[in-house]
Write a structure and sequence with these properties.
Blueprint: H1 9-20, E1 22-25, E2 29-32, H2 37-41, H3 45-53, E3 66-73, H4 77-82, E4 86-93, E5 100-105, E6 120-121, E7 124-125, E8 127-135, E9 148-151, E10 162-168, E11 176-184, E12 188-202
Antiparallel strand pairs: 1-2, 3-4, 3-12, 4-5, 5-8, 6-7, 8-9, 9-10, 10-11, 11-12
Length: 211
């Protein structure tokens, strides 16, 4: 029988993290190691897909009136140069309908660690891509079974067919989320686009839903 005395527990904990990707707690046994933003940024597309499948549920009420810095993942560098690397996603609990809805905000490209600074258009933050955040439908692509679905149905055209499942990377917390984009054209058309969302703080500017 292996002797796990107090002096050997730190070394054993390190071995468990390295070998199993888990953290050891003497009082509680095993617990999944917390995934950090830098962990996610280092992942290849296949690892991102596996992390999305193993992600955790997201409490929709925990997203009420919050703002997240988004970092685009999985796209070739030339595509990011033509679009953006960072953006903002926000969530707003509409008091009139009770629906959790949101939109994207174009931000100044100031690096991955600078607080989001919205670009402006006509004197207001430049927003686009309105969505609702809903429960996952019964059938999801790529074996995704937990999380929420960002549904762009409020938009017209092809944008309205876009769907982004998002999952929590640490169970019971919503500070760090992982998402992926696909098109719902009757069948799911996958895209190479993933993104990580870091909670920045409360929502500061509310815009009306599309008419």
């Amino acid at each position: 029988m292996l002797d796990v005395g107090a002096s050997s527990q730190p070394a054993l904990a390190g071995w468990l993290v390295a070998f199993h990707g888990r953290d050891f707690r003497a009082a509680g046994g095993y617990r999944r190691a917390v995934t950090t933003r830098d962990d996610v940024l280092a992942m290849k597309r296949r690892e991102l897909a596996a992390t999305l499948r193993s992600g955790h549920s997201v409490d929709p009420h925990a997203l009420d009136d919050s703002a997240y810095r988004g970092i685009s993942l999985g796209l070739p560098a030339w595509m990011e140069r033509l679009s953006w690397k960072t953006f903002q996603k926000v969530f707003h609990r509409d008091p009139a309908t009770g629906v959790l809805r949101g939109w994207n905000v174009r931000v100044e490209q100031r690096g991955l660690d600078a607080p989001s600074q919205a670009k402006e258009r006509s004197g207001a933050p430049w927003t686009f891509g309105h969505y609702t955040a809903t429960a996952l439908p019964p059938r999801m692509p790529r074996g995704i079974a937990r999380g929420l679905l960002i549904d762009y149905s409020p938009e017209r055209g092809l944008m309205g067919r876009l769907r982004d499942p998002i999952v929590a990377l640490d169970e019971g917390k919503v500070e760090l989320l992982l998402g992926w984009s696909y098109l719902d054209l009757g069948i799911a058309i996958p895209t190479p686009s993933y993104f990580v969302l870091e909670r920045e703080g409360p929502l500061e500017h509310v815009v009306a839903a599309p008419a």
